[in-house]
Amino acid sequence: MPNMALDSPLDNVIDIFTRKPLSELSNNKLIRIAPELDGLEMLYSNAENPQKLFSIKILAWGLRLSGEVVGLVPWLDELVACDEINDPLNGQWQGYYDQGVDELFFAAPLHKVVELETAADYYEYQCDSDREIIQEVPDSIGTHAVLSADGFHSITLKEVVSWRLLQNGCIQAMLIDDEKVISTPVLPGDNCLYVANQDDDFKYFFQHHIANQLKSQSPEAMAAIALLEES
Fold this sequence. Notes:
Distance between the termini: 54 Å
Oligomer: single chain
C-alpha cells in the first residue's frame, strides 16, 4: 500500500491560521483573475434574516491552481472567494445570480472559465519573487475602503482604484496617496497607489451604495457605523 504521507507530504501539514492542510491551500491559490463586467452578483444569507437573501456585486472571477474558477467579492477587510464565505452571522454563500434573466447558478459562467484558462495558458510568467505583480485590474463595482484612526469616531472613505494579483496568489486593493498624484485620472499601475491593508487606519471595504449613504450621512448608514464604533 502506498505511503500517503510520502506521496502528498503537504496533506499532513496544517496551516496554524486557517486550520486547513497546506496542500488544500496550495490548490486554492489564485493564478489568474478576470473582471466581472456584466453585473453578475453573489447571493448570501445571514443568521439575523434567515428568510431573506442578499446580493453583492461580483468584482472578478479567479482561476485557482486546481483549475476551479470562483467569484471574488470584497468582504469585510479582504477579497474573498464566494464559496469561502461561511460565517453564520455575517453571511453564508447561496450561489451566483444573474439579475438580467433572474437566474440562480452555482458554477462560474463558461465564458469566464474559457477566458481565464486561455489567458493562463497564454501568459507564462517567470518570477524571481512570490511578491511580484502578475496582474492589476481596475475596480469596476465602486469599492471603497473605510479608514479610521480613532475607533470609528471619524472615518475617511477612499475609492479602490485597482486590485493586484501577486505571484503568491494574494490580491491587494490599491488606494490613492493624494500627496503623490501627478496627473489625473489615476489609473491602475500609477505610482501614487498604495496597498490598502498596509495602512494602519484601514478597517473594511464597502460597496459604492453604502459608501454613498455614508457620504450623505444617511441615518441607517450612520447607525451602522455607530455599531462598529461600539464594537
